[in-house]
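Q: Two folds, back to back.
A: First:
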Amino acid sequence: MTNTQSNTAFRGFGGPQGTFAIEYIMDNVARSVGHDSLDVRRANLYGKTENNKTPYG
């Protein structure tokens, strides 16, 4: 039965909270600069040839 959600406790170890926080921040950035939030998200995606270096190298 893989098509239903788990009825047990699940610990995300802070992952879900971090994701929620950064999505909220991206929305605020978009609102502040007057752009659509999807455009801001797309501008910050990693690319294959350009924009493909992480802060850790």
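A: Second:
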Amino acid sequence: MNKDDLVVGKIVTLAKGVRRLIAPNAGMMTGPGTNTYLLGERHIAVIDPGPAIDTHIQQIIDVAAAPVLWILVTHTHPDHSPAAMALATATGAEVLGIPAPQGRHQDSTFSPDRILADRDVFSTDEFELEVVHTPGHASNHLCYLHTDCRWLFTGDHIINGSTVVIDPPDGSMSDYIQSLQKLRSMAIDALAPGHGAVLENVEEALNWIISHRLEREAKVVEKLAAHPATSLAELVVHVYDDVNASLHSLAERSLLAHLLKLELEGRAIQHENCWCLKE
């Protein structure tokens, strides 16, 4: 797949019984827009209907060309789940996922008819999905493994084109890396992300993300050693000196996630809003 395939509003067949429609919500955090996937041919399951944009919801119904019976959500951030309830109302579809946790940037309107858990199996007469709980980017994040073609629908756990922000307290760097390592033990042939094109070199993609996060963690440790008793706002300048300063407020969230992971491991400590390595 290449960037030319990423056309908002165009239904693209990616594999037998797997189609993609991109929502019109392009931006810094969403890339070309949120990927909505339509699975099946006679009866349709929709993965991540996206934001509550009326034209996108109607287009999902129009391009489905068959009854939409199920709506599966990877997580409840506002670019992935808010259209679920409106689409369910319009189609009568069953909604599946995990309710939104407390906190900012969560879709409190999401109310699943069926709550999913790790290793649950969702089956139709056309395909089967295995549920994979992947906390990290969000505590209620789920991926869905198509057991026939071995494609993993990754939501925001893995996206194409950039790394994702890990935003505490709901986001957890420790959980995120463990979830990535969990995927390395699975037989996956392609990654169908929530943003960007399909990733076919699965092992390379997983290894790069894990290495990138651990390299950033090592830099956090290095800069904490050089600048002990440092505030988050001061530390981000040193740890993310390769990132434009205009993005440092956003980078602070992932930096905090790294620091909390180090604290959990007994390697860092916070005192009066400053951080230092634990002796």
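Q: And?
A: The chain has two domains: 3-200, 219-277.
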